[in-house]
Amino acid sequence: MMSKKQILIIFSLCLFVYACKKSDMVQEQVEAFLGFQQPANFPAPVYKLSANPVTKAGFELGRSLFYEARLSRNNTVSCGSCHIQSSAFTQHGHDVSHGIDDRLGTRNSPPIMNLAWNKAFMWGGGIFDLDLQPVAPITNHEEMDESVENVMAKLRLLPKYTTLFKNAFGTEEITTARMMKALSQFMVMCISSNSKYDKVMRKEAGVSFTTQEQQGYMLFKEKCASCHSEPLFTDGSFRNNGLSLSPINDQGLYTATLIATDRYKFKVPSLRNLKYTAPYMHDGRFLTLDGVLEHYHSQVQDLPNLDPILKNGARLGIALSDEDKSKLLAFLATLNDETFINNPALAEQ
């Protein structure tokens, strides 16, 4: 027969095991996959989620593909190489992207965030469907330098992907369309909507702008919001913002449309997470936000197709005093979203 002490030990172990299982169950419930959730202060998404609903298995496949170096010719570069989560999915510190064999691109890596609300992609346009966007970096000579056919062949050799594709789509078939849809499921889940600005707009308890932030917000609405409209802080358009021409003479949207009035127009970027996404502009020419503001204040060039918003009689640009700049910077800091850049669900697993 067991002693009282032995019985107590066994009973205690049983309680411990039960408590652990209960804790695991609670944790699983907390971490339950909710799919795509539209933030309360955001408009309806542009991406057609009805044609590609986000599932847990599809998202997990997309995440694996996003960090998969086999998408590149020599298996060294993944999407995550140039779109790093801690930098709001940009390639922080590089003026232009660094791709395969450390080849240099011609443009700064744009952040991957809130893409479900984008109507067009790339700095210079040309792609209007998120499901097609990954083809550009995969096949670009300076980025991944691979063919989609070779990517498919490499993925089909890996039992890991046979399982992941079956989980996501019901069969083991690995196709281009499925790969693109899975990548989209991951990318539309890269939602940045938990900055201080968002909390203020949602009227969350205990959150409010400081006096300087509020003054900056008022200035922003007066001087910047015509292009960087709330709550995404971009209107998704392509504009010529008067940057001096670069040595490579990148002609922006014109390259995609061949319409003369599109020369030197580039996509208006979101102003979210600027703390993490330096350097700035399509070619990364400005290392600091001070440099960006000074450009709009005093360095706008009268180029063909300059946006009319930047023409104010004889003066080009936007008049900004040093005090204005300080207030604007204070407001822009409220758009930084630490939750987004630290979200473990978006990290490489």
Can you tell me about this structure?
This protein has 349 residues and is mainly alpha-helical. The protein folds into 2 domains: 49-191, Cytochrome c-like domain (Cytochrome Bc1 Complex, Chain D, domain 2), CATH 1.10.760; 196-338, Orthogonal Bundle (Cytochrome Bc1 Complex, Chain D, domain 2). Helix content is 37%, strand content 2%. The chain has helices spanning 4-30, 56-66, 79-82, 135-139, 148-156, 159-169, 176-188, 196-201, 211-223, 254-257, 289-299, 322-332, 338-341, and strands at 238-239, 266-267, 311-312, 315-316. The strands form 2 sheets. It has a two-stranded antiparallel sheet. Helix 9 packs across helix 12 (322-332). The longest helix has 27 residues, at 4-30.
Entry keywords:
349 residues; cytochrome-c peroxidase activity; 2 domains; mainly alpha; Cytochrome Bc1 Complex, Chain D, domain 2; single chain; two-stranded antiparallel ribbon; 13 helices; globular; heme binding; signal; two-stranded antiparallel sheet
In short:
The protein is mainly alpha-helical and 349 residues long.
Radius of gyration using CA atoms only: 24 Å
CATH fold annotation of the largest domain: Cytochrome Bc1 Complex, Chain D, domain 2
Query: Based on CA inertia axes, which overall geometry fits?
Result: globular
Taking the sheet with the most strands, its summary is:
2 strands, antiparallel
Q: Strand order of the main beta sheet, please?
A: 1-2
Architecture of the largest domain in CATH? Orthogonal Bundle
Can you write the helix and strand succession as a string?
HHHHHHHHHEHEHEEHH
- What is the β-strand count? 4
The CATH first-level class of the largest domain comes to Mainly Alpha
Which class best fits the helix and strand makeup?
A: mainly alpha
Query: What helical percentage do the residues reach?
Result: 25-40%
Give the number of helices: 13
Q: What number is the mean pLDDT? A: 92
How many structural domains are formed by the residues? 2
% residues in beta strands: under 5%
CATH superfamily of the largest domain: Cytochrome c-like domain
N-to-C span: 49 Å
Weakly predicted, low-confidence segments = 15-19, 21-30
Main location: periplasm
Protein name: Cytochrome c peroxidase
Pfam families: CCP_MauG
GO molecular function: cytochrome-c peroxidase activity; electron transfer activity; heme binding; metal ion binding
